[in-house]
Specification:
- 2 copies of one chain form a homodimer.
- Chain A is of the alpha/beta class.
- Chain A contains 9 helices and 17 strands.
- Chain A folds into 2 domains: 112 residues, Lyase, Ornithine Decarboxylase, Chain A, domain 1, CATH 2.40.37.20; 222 residues, TIM Barrel.
- In chain A, the strands form 2 sheets. In chain A, strands 1, 10, 11, 12, 13, 14, 15, 16 and 17 form a 9-stranded mixed beta sheet that branches.
- At the A-B interface, helix 4 and strand 10 of A face helix 4 and strand 10 of B.
Chain lengths: 374, 374
């Protein structure tokens, strides 16, 4: 059962029930516009990652601004978005197991669907599943360009896998997935750039070896919000897969720009509205947002406009706000906007976005692929 | 939209799509039976906390075994459970804000509903909201017995608040909420017991002062899975609110019993089934369960029956299994059962429980109050 929406269109923003996921629509739209313009100016395609927002509506807003489609991380995310009208999805991830391969192949009859692979046996399984449904699947070879997670070794192993795909009756080799996930949150600008330069060398070498083998890469995908600008002009990547830029979070906010200042390329557009639900001392109060309302895996949220108030001690349904620096700041029933530590797992906890502009609720959007795990 | 179930009744357990939330039904039923028998033998009521399982069906199984009702942490949890047939809920938490008070009062027309309070203004608001709907709300005074979260100070402040409730036309003072949350995971047995002894002193003093003021406590609620046995025979608590005992998790597993051995009073009955989705080296493999599939806030999961394989490096949709101690243990497509670090926030990520017995899927139960945040 989807939860009821915590607000109605036209409500005052402060009247939204809590905890709720608020979008500052002005900031959000500026973020969308900025990344769209960046990709256009740079002459690369933009295929934003929907694992951040899990929303068919936001995917549409991105595609209206020029995105060629979206990335998903799970077959179930792709199913949810396709069912809601998104017609071009890349599963930027491996898909393993009979049920998932059946679902992936079936979905490819209803939308343009591509997937990644890093294993020969998996390619054989992909080919068989596609053949059973009578579709041709686009397959990218994922190479490990430094993240140490998924991805086959660049160079000869990747070329061999690409050849296997290319020789599979029901598959089409369509390029490389070359995402350096572990570089996204390297705080120092130069170090972050260096990690992408290293990834670029590996990616370009692989592209060249593929060309020698007669295999052309239609797509070379990669890049995240922390590194998008380093992927330009490299002649390696031609498709950016950034996701978090739509919302930002405190973790990305800790990255540094070239001059050492905080990363402010994109604006905080996502907030968890929370209520002070207990205040029995002057030293702290308790808000109604804990682990079930916030993705705390990359650090705790910041309180918007109350930098001197630290969030701490989250339990499942509670969080503590330290008032020792500002004893009179908050009273029972007050609402605060928390900037999530990590936007992706935070969004996954909610059924609804509450879009706010000029102090009023303007939009209620479903988190289409909330809980899409498989 | 609720996600489709990841299995069908009768499927082989290993054929369940992943990630999925599995219940070992035999172990689960033994856990239910054991706590029910304990409470019965001890002569106290059992009101298990549904914040762990969020399931109307599991609440019914608990009540069939003698539980008087369940605790909830949120009005929306209570709404979901009442709508699914649970007729006695205590919101063991404060409820603050106009919308929530309206919903709480409305719900009290449809089930036996009680709530906690730790603030005089909140009591006034509760009384007004109940009056508007024409109901009488049962209210417990929450006292802080050492956790430092919600709860008014024990003794005189609690008595004053109880008097205010007692004098409110639409409220009924029904006792004390005296939960020592921070004691639940104190690892050492004696220290854990000591924390509850301290809570007991404060609780009994408050009960006595209330009696002097002519106020009787119908309910004195508290206790969790880590401390339930210490609440017995104290003549303080008469209602146990344990939740995690139904499933257990690795965090509770780290508690120590009286003889220093690991806490094994209850069995691990909850698992996240995950698939090896990438294996490009002998040293590690990647499973399809990360932060969106596991509550990692109290530590990472353990791999059932593979103690030498450590889970690490979770990202949103991935986790790494270290194979350095056992290089041949796992191959692509293999499934593993992960014992969650923390059961409550893990359950909240899923729409379905998959109940398994004798290697077959026997039950598909909805996580009724999944995402019930408000």
């Amino acid at each position: 059962m989807r939860q009821p929406a915590p607000a109605r269109i036209g409500d005052a923003a402060e009247d939204v029930d809590t905890p709720a996921l608020l979008i500052d629509l002005d900031a959000f739209e500026r973020n969308l516009d900025k990344m769209a313009a960046f990709a256009k100016d740079a002459g690369v395609r933009l295929r934003p990652h929907s694992k951040t927002h899990k929303s068919a509506h936001i995917a549409r807003l991105q595609m209206e601004r020029g995105a060629v489609g979206v990335c998903c991380q799970k077959v179930s995310e792709a199913e949810a978005l396709v069912q809601s009208g998104i017609n071009d999805v890349l599963i930027s991830n491996e898909v393993v197991g009979r049920h998932k391969l059946n679902r992936l192949s079936a979905l490819a009859r209803h939308a343009k669907v591509a997937v990644c692979a890093d294993d020969a046996d998996n390619v054989i399984d992909l080919n068989a599943a596609a053949g059973q449904v009578g579709v041709t699947l686009d397959v990218l070879v994922e190479i490990d360009v430094g993240a140490g997670r998924c991805g086959i070794a660049p160079g000869a192993p990747a070329v061999d896998l690409a050849k296997l795909i290319d020789g599979s009756r029901n598959l089409r080799f369509s390029g490389l997935q070359a995402y350096q996930g572990s570089a996204q949150h390297i705080r120092d600008f130069a170090e972050r750039k260096m990690a992408i330069n290293a990834a670029q060398v590996l990616t370009k070498q692989t592209i060249e070896q593929l060309a020698e083998a007669g295999l052309d890469c239609e797509t070379i995908g990669g890049a995240g919000t922390g590194t998008y600008e380093f992927h330009i002009g490299s002649k390696a990547w031609n498709e950016l897969q950034c996701g978090s830029y739509v919302f930002m979070d405190t973790d990305y906010g800790k990255n540094r720009m070239a001059d050492g200042s905080m990363f402010t390329e994109f604006e905080n557009a996502l907030f968890v509205l929370a209520t002070v639900m207990s205040k029995t001392t002057d030293d702290f109060c308790v808000v109604d947002a804990g682990h079930k309302a916030l993705g705390n895996d990359q650090g705790f949220p910041r309180v918007l406009d109350l930098d001197e108030v630290a969030y701490s001690h989250p339990s499942d349904e509670h969080g503590r706000l330290d008032l020792s620096e500002t004893k009179q700041a908050l009273k029972l029933g007050d609402k605060v906007k928390l900037i999530p530590g990590h936007c992706d797992p935070t969004v996954n906890l909610y059924d609804w976005y509450v879009g706010v502009r000029n102090g009023r609720v303007e939009a209620l959007w479903q988190v289409t692929a909330r809980g899409a795990l498989t």
